[in-house]
Design brief:
By secondary structure, this protein is of the alpha/beta class. It has a domain of 190 residues: 3-Layer(aba) Sandwich (Rossmann fold). The chain has seven helices and twelve strands. A seven-stranded mixed β-sheet has the order 3-2-1-4-7-8-9, with helices on both faces. Strands 6-5-10-12-11 form a five-stranded antiparallel β-sheet. The longest helix has 21 residues. It is globular. The model has no long low-confidence stretch (mean pLDDT 97).
Length: 279
C-alpha cells in the first residue's frame, strides 16, 4: 500500500501565527518542529497499518521546511523537497492508494480558522471550481480525484476538518489538533496528545484506504470552470494578460478546460502573475 502525504504547516500542532510559518521570523524554527512532529506521527500510524511505501511532499511556502535528517524511519519513506513543482502541494501523488493532507488550513474567509487563506493570502480573495468555492483542500482533493486517488486523511484545526468533511463526506478521517478562537489564537492539544490523535487517525485512514473505503471528491465529468477573484483589480490586470484567460469582472478571471492537472497549473500560473499591489 502506497500512501502519499502532502504536508503543510499552518494546521500543525500548536501553530497560531504567521511568525511561526515564515522563514524570515525567529519563531519559524517552532513551525518546522511542529510540522515535523505531525508528519512523523502520521507516518508512524500509516506504517502501523501496513503501508509499504510513503511519499511525503513538503507543501509549505518554499517547500524546504522538513529536515530529511530528522525524519528517521527507513527506506519505505521518501521526501519530495523544494520548489517550484508543477503540481505544487500534490506533486508526486500519482499512483498512490490514498493521499493524506497533513497540517492543512481552512480556505480564505473562514471564521474561527487559524491563518485561513487560499494559496496566497495577499493575492487570492476566493477560488471557485464548477461554481463551488474551494480552498487548498478542495483544489488538491479534486486533483487527486482526477488522477484516481482518494483522500483518506485531513489534519488541522476544527474549521479545516469541517471544510474537508463537507467536500469529501463522512468516509473521510479527520484529526483535529486545535480549535481556533480567532485567526491568530487557538486552544491547542499538547504535542504528546496530538501525536496520539494523529497516529491513530492515520492508522484508521490507511486501513480504510486498504479496504477501498477512502473517499474521492466528486468531480463530475472532468470538465472544469475555474474562477479566481483577486484582492484588487491591479492583480487581475496581471493575470488577465495571459492568452486564453477570460476576465469576467474587475477582480475575477475565468479558465475552462478538462483535467485538474491542467486546472491546477492554470491556478498556480495566474496567482504567480498577479503581483502583490498595495494600492
Amino acid at each position: 500500500m502506497r500512501i502519499y502525504i502532502s504536508a503543510d504547516m499552518e494546521g500543525a500542532t500548536g501553530i497560531v501565527s504567521s511568525c511561526q510559518t515564515d522563514s524570515n521570523e525567529s519563531e519559524y524554527s517552532f513551525g518546522q518542529k511542529m510540522q515535523l512532529h505531525d508528519v512523523k506521527a502520521v507516518v508512524s500510524g500509516a506504517l502501523d497499518a501496513g503501508a509499504d511505501e510513503i511519499l511525503i511532499n513538503d507543501s509549505h511556502w518554499r517547500m524546504i521546511n522538513l529536515d530529511i535528517g530528522e525524519l528517521g524511519f527507513d527506506s519505505r519513506v521518501r521526501l519530495i523537497s523544494g520548489s517550484p513543482k508543477a503540481l505544487c502541494m500534490v506533486e508526486g501523488f500519482e499512483g498512490a492508494d490514498a493521499a493524506f493532507f497533513v497540517g492543512y488550513h481552512a480556505k480564505m474567509g473562514t471564521p474561527r480558522a487559524i491563518l485561513d487563506h487560499t494559496i496566497s493570502g495577499v493575492r487570492v480573495y476566493t477560488i471557485s471550481l464548477n461554481g463551488r468555492e474551494v480552498g487548498e483542500t478542495g483544489l488538491n482533493a479534486a486533483t487527486c480525484a482526477d488522477g484516481g486517488v482518494p483522500v483518506a486523511l485531513v489534519t488541522g484545526d476544527a474549521a479545516l476538518c469541517t471544510e474537508a468533511r463537507e467536500l469529501l463526506g463522512d468516509g473521510l478521517v479527520t484529526a483535529r489538533v486545535k480549535d481556533a478562537r480567532g485567526r491568530l489564537a487557538a486552544d491547542c492539544l499538547l504535542p504528546e496528545e496530538s501525536a496520539r490523535v494523529l497516529r491513530e487517525a492515520a492508522a484508521e485512514a490507511a486501513t480504510r484506504a486498504r479496504d477501498g473505503r477512502a473517499p474521492r471528491m466528486d468531480i463530475g465529468d472532468g470538465t472544469y470552470d475555474l474562477r479566481i477573484t483577486f484582492h484588487n483589480s491591479a492583480q487581475c490586470d496581471d493575470a488577465a494578460i495571459v492568452p486564453g484567460v477570460e476576465r469576467i469582472g474587475g477582480r475575477t478571471v475565468r479558465v475552462t478546460g478538462r483535467g485538474m492537472t491542467e486546472m491546477m497549473r492554470w491556478t498556480l500560473t495566474l496567482i504567480s502573475l498577479a503581483a502583490y499591489i498595495e494600492k
